[in-house]
Amino acid sequence: MDRIVHLLRCPLCGGAFSRKDSSLICPKRHTYDIARQGYVNFVPGQKDMFYRKELFESRAQVFAAGVYQPVVERLTEMLDAYLPQENPVIVDAGCGEGYYAKAVCPGRGMTRIGFDLSKEAVRLAARGEKTAVFFAADLGSIPLADGCADAVLDIFTPANYAEFKRVLGPGGLVFKLAPRSGYLRELRELAADQLRRKEYDGGDVERYVHEKMNVIAQETICYTLHVSQETAYHLARMTPMLAGTDIEKLDLSAIRQITIDETLYIGTVK
Ligand SMILES: C[S@@+](CC[C@H](N)C(=O)[O-])C[C@H]1O[C@@H](n2cnc3c(N)ncnc32)[C@H](O)[C@@H]1O
Ligand SMILES: [Zn+2]
């Protein structure tokens, strides 16, 4: 935390923080405690909604099973290609339990920061973590100083382009991943009876991204991989795409493979 205090700013008044014992204090004396696990909660009182602790635990299981490893590898290649500078500052916006912030560019020196509205997610992200710093915060008021970041990762998370633009330095890039029509197709087909929205094509997101960003690179990341029963169960539990379905009613033994189908957009904010 000490290494990044100068990158933070008060989400209430925009003032710079100084550290006093286990608190961060701005000139207007807005005070935030640094938890024992090393994270800061900038949204005290915020209730966790759909994203509950069990969901993040399932996400962690899916990540540990390597389902998203090819995505991490491609992101790593692109981050290396587009951020050649030494020790870039990357911000994982809506980081969940912090998988990408920790896993991209293994072994490379980076200042890794992740934040999420969910305190539970941030607590999981920060647990035992030495290489990245996490905090609970809202995309609408990111507690980071103007121009402090080289890249923002926005992975399956809503975007706030005005805030991304503010925290990015000159030439700073957004790396955005969004689902395409084939994403978790097998699970959505299995749950079709229960789903209100059966088809998903990602077209709205695509249009909005091009409205808000100067996209300099765009590509599809698509693959199908075999999954165990257990991983299929955790995938069903973790994805917002099955929100509202009764997972216990699904015959998950029918799921032997899973399709990951995503678009990666890289660009500056307009
Ligand atoms: C589908 S999850 C993706 C998490 C992570 N990026 C990943 O790919 O594993 C979406 C995340 O966005 C977070 N989120 C939603 N609204 C947010 C907001 N206003 N500010 C910060 N995070 C938010 C949720 O808490 C959740 O962790
Ligand atoms: Zn303040």
Brief summary of the model shown:
The chain has helices spanning 53-64, 69-82, 99-103, 119-126, 161-167, 185-190, 203-212, 229-238; strands spanning 18-20, 23-25, 31-33, 40-41, 89-93, 111-116, 132-136, 149-155, 168-179, 213-226, 257-269. 27% of the residues lie in helices and 27% in strands.
Shape: globular
Helix content: 25-40%
- The CATH class, by name, is Alpha Beta
The topology string of helices and strands comes to EEEEHHEHEHEEHEHHEHE
Low-confidence stretches: none
Report the structural category.
Answer: alpha/beta
Mean pLDDT: 93
Listed once per kind, the bound small molecules are: S-adenosylmethionine, zinc ion
Beta strand count = 11
Major β-sheet profile: 8 strands, mixed
Distance between the termini: 31 Å
> What is the fold-level CATH name, i.e. the topology?
Rossmann fold
Describe the structure.
It is a single chain. The chain has 270 residues and is an alpha/beta fold. It has helices spanning 53-64, 69-82, 99-103, 119-126, 161-167, 185-190, 203-212, 229-238, and strands spanning 18-20, 23-25, 31-33, 40-41, 89-93, 111-116, 132-136, 149-155, 168-179, 213-226, 257-269. An 8-stranded mixed beta sheet has the order 4-7-6-5-8-9-11-10, sandwiched between helices. It has a 3-stranded antiparallel beta sheet with strand order 1-2-3, with no helix packed on it. β6 (111-116), α4 (119-126) and β7 (132-136) form a beta-alpha-beta unit. S-adenosylmethionine binds at residues 51, 59, 94-96, 99, 116-118, 121, 138-140, 155-158, 240.
